[in-house]
Here is the input.
Amino acid sequence: MVARLATALIAVALVAPPALAAASERGASAASSAPAGARLLSCRRSPLLAARVAVVGTWMRPLAAGRRLAVRVDLWQHLPGGRWTQRTDVPGLSTWVAPTDPLLGTRPGDIFKYRQSVGRLAVPAAYRFRVSFRWSDAAGAVVRQTAATTAACREPDVRPDLVLDSVEATSAPRGNGLVRYAVTVRNAGRSPAPRSVVAATLPGDAIPNARHRSVPRLRPAESTVVTFTGPGCAAGAMPASFVVDPANALEEASEVDNEVAATCPTP
Here is the structure.
């Protein structure tokens, strides 16, 4: 359970993109006769931060007056309720890249192909690439520049979300002045939640969250009940409290509903 970033900080979830792949081909055919183009190749959605990736593929042909080729990839992000804004904090982006082959662009049929991946996409958000293309002459003077924008990569929040819906405190069946606490755990997220635990702090416990009960794997909208037996408390005293996934091992869609306190029944 990783603490959810505030909206203003969601953008920082992106880190350095995976290794770039720049490739050039001679005599390859392109789907369009235009001198350049870009396309969103992949938009991988996942409940896991490390698995969310967007990939753009670009290509450009030399012009008669501009045989030196260069491409630049920029990433734009749209957060819920906001506007499209350019990301300027992702290493490897917003930099002009030329072919590794210095002769590429000087031969008939040359095509410069370039691919860029960006990983660890924050959710919920949408992303798109704006790709700039630049042609220069032999002296380095820019003779033409254009740009293309890809389709959006929409990243919904498909993470699980463990919720402690309620806790019911009743006298334990065998008496002895003990109380039975029945805690309802539900997965309110959009993907299965792996096995977890609920930790309890009962009245009189010297160590918080020392009592644990296992929670099975829960599908979306599925719930289960775990029980604890222990002392009740006097009126006005601290009641029993419960927290799911106390070790913060699960990345969830929300962290605001992982704790619940019981009423304070007397045994």
